[in-house]
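Researcher: Structure for this, please.
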Amino acid sequence: MTKFAIFYLLLGLGGVGTYGYLTTTGWEYTKQETRFVPKEIMSSPGGYRSFHYWHVGYGGYRGGK
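Model: Predicted structure, token format:
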């Protein structure tokens, strides 16, 4: 291996290791406020990301592009 390949390998491993450590410890760069959505709104037909949104064969999340 060349010196550049070793350098980039160590740089990549260091970046992935740092990311893994920070994710495991729960550290966040910024604190985002989460908004509370009542269960009645979420579970109602046509509500915000309702059961039907995710589980009906058409119109829900289908994956891919």
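Researcher: Any notable elements?
Model: Helices lie at 3-25, 39-43, 51-55. The mean pLDDT is 77.
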